[in-house]
Design brief:
The chain is built from 13 helices and eight strands. The chain has an eight-stranded mixed beta sheet with strand order 1-2-4-3-5-6-7-8, with helices on both faces. It has 305 residues and is α/β, with parallel strands linked by helices.
Length: 305
């Protein structure tokens, strides 16, 4: 994978897709898309978060592709998708629509799972025609809809102006992350993962995050700092499950609880003790299990299969 670092062995090594394609968004942005598993199987669409890539979903893809058609894509500027000057919630929604239209048949329904900024992508797309046509159910992992900087606990201070100011500058730093060193792993683990996260989980996440281009990381941090998608939550009418780790410093449980309270059709929520922000990596079986449950309950198999 060009410009993409990831572990090359173990459960977090990205599987080889059955096919790859490029989806073209409304503004011409080109999005790298991977399809795994049988073409006739129930579809699942995976949207990754800020500074990540399709490699972030390796454990879910490896599990689900045995009996699902798993569609994963790189958000613009991440992984194999080229950077774009347009960085906004609307651009995220445009991109998800483009992926759905490029990979699903008319009227075909999929379970859509979004982690962090991927969950925000789903909220931004909630009113879009293609989303409503294709979404059977949604899984929101470790995400929030507004007040992301104010409610983050990455900076170990009490809530207030000072913590918000410091958090904005920490998350929006322009400095390159550099190579994945022992110190870099410790910093990433503190900020994004639970204290008991295994070293191989930390290594997988560190390689993915450090591969994100510095300018892309900064540009999207500015979007997230000002994000307000509360209206999108209220419009997300498909059955939705929310998952969060109790030790999540980026989108703490208060964010998940606000989603649960505002969603019109929340069908379940789970708070995972001691887990951090990277729930699909830290609790791969549980996240895959939630997706399977949603497919079994709400998704349909492709017509003509």
């Amino acid at each position: 994978m060009s410009r993409l670092m990831h572990v090359r062995s173990g459960p977090y090594a990205p599987p080889t897709p059955v096919r790859e394609l490029v989806a073209v968004s409304a503004d011409g942005a080109r999005l790298h898309v991977e399809v795994h598993g049988p073409e006739s199987a129930p579809p699942v669409v995976l949207a990754h978060g800020w500074t990540c890539s399709t490699a972030f979903w390796a454990a879910q893809i490896r599990d689900l592709a045995a009996d699902h058609r798993v569609i994963a894509y790189d958000q613009r500027g991440h992984g194999r998708s080229p950077a774009s000057p347009a960085c906004s919630p609307d651009a995220l929604a445009d991109d998800l629509e483009a992926v759905l239209e490029a990979t699903l048949a008319p009227g075909e329904k999929a379970v859509i799972a979004g982690h962090s900024m991927g969950g925000m992508t789903v909220m931004a797309a909630a009113t879009r025609k293609s989303f409503r046509e294709h979404a059977a159910a949604v899984l929101l992992c470790s995400t929030g809809s507004s007040r992301l900087v104010a409610e983050s606990t990455v900076v170990p201070l009490g809530p207030g102006r000072l913590r918000t100011w410091l958090t904005r500058h920490v998350l929006g730093a322009r400095a390159p992350l550099g190579p994945v060193t022992p110190l870099a792993r410790r910093i990433l683990k503190y900020g994004t993962m639970g204290p008991a996260s295994a070293p191989h989980m930390v290594e997988a996440c560190a390689r993915i995050v450090h591969a994100c281009p510095r300018k892309v990381r900064h540009a999207w941090s500015q979007v997230l700092a000002l994000l307000d998608l509360d209206h999108g939550v209220r419009e997300l009418r498909v059955p939705t499950v929310v998952v969060v780790g109790t030790a999540d410093r980026l989108t703490p449980p208060v964010q998940a609880r606000a989603l649960v309270a505002a969603l019109p059709n929340c069908v379940g929520s789970t708070e995972l003790p001691g887990l951090g922000h990277m729930t699909p990596v830290e609790a791969p079986e549980l996240v895959s299990g939630r997706i399977r449950e949603l497919v079994t309950t709400y998704a349909t198999i492709k017509e003509g299969a």
